[in-house]
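chain below, 169 aa
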Amino acid sequence: MAESGPQGLQINPSAPGAAPSVQAARDRIELAPGVRVPETALRFQYARSSGPGGQNVNKVNTKAEAWVFVAALTAGGLSERAAGRLAALAGRRLTDAGEIHIASDTHRTQRANREAVLERLRALLVAAIHEPKARRKRKPSRAAKQRRLESKRHRSEIKGNRRAGPGEG
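prediction:
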């Protein structure tokens, strides 16, 4: 079980007697399909929230913030192309140091805000993993061009018939 250290940073004590490979596999978190990172790659911090909670927000650190390096995600199974899309999707949440910073203070409890942060990160990763379908240029067929021009001619005739002639009006 992870403990909270100074300023809410997570400390992950290793389980006694566990083999290093078993321990390493156990400490990995699956953030998205095929993307697994060690728990140490995620950095959490908690602060006083401005969200719901009434008097409670003045006493308890419920706002959750998380940072994760994009490099750690690529080492965890995210492709380079997906990492590029992730950087574009992250926008201003991507820091100059190459970390993605996500915060949540929408819930009353620290645990719920932490889960909300992880869920937002998962949604961002799933969107980045999705490879957009390449658009292929197409030309309209000759018949499609003729239909378009015929409909334009027809509309022109309809509007021309609305105009008053020289003897009218």
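The chain has one domain: 3-129. The first strand starts at residue 3 and ends at 4.
thats it, cya
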